[in-house]
Amino acid sequence: MNFKASALILPLLATLPLGGCFTSTYTHGHVVTTDMLNQVQVGSSREQVELVLGSPSTTSSLNGDAYYYISQKTATTAFMAPDIVEQRVVAVYFDKDGYVQDLGNYSLQDGKIVDIVTRKTRTGGADYGFLTQILRGAANPSLGL
User: Is the pLDDT at 102 greater than 80, yes or no?
Assistant: First the structure.
């Protein structure tokens, strides 16, 4: 290999592992811009809200009706777990006649962390790993494995 070719190939091969280190951003859900939100005023009807904001991500009928527009932006670097960069919930609350009574705009700082219990219920019998199962089968060939 001549000197010119190696001078070109070696830096390319050295930077190849860094190709996976770039950050990718993903947006999930229903993104509501500030301009869209400014078009929804108190007193607007349900139909007007749906024309401007679209179909809601979810609805609620507890203590009056409400539309919720949920979005989340995550950033992933290489093989690492994604980090939540931005999270937003826009809530549109309606009165009993179906007109906008109030608007809520909640971000990641407004959220609460919920501790999910990850306990497992034990079942009867033993829980053997793969290697233990192989060794037990070799020690007892009459099991028919």
Answer: yes
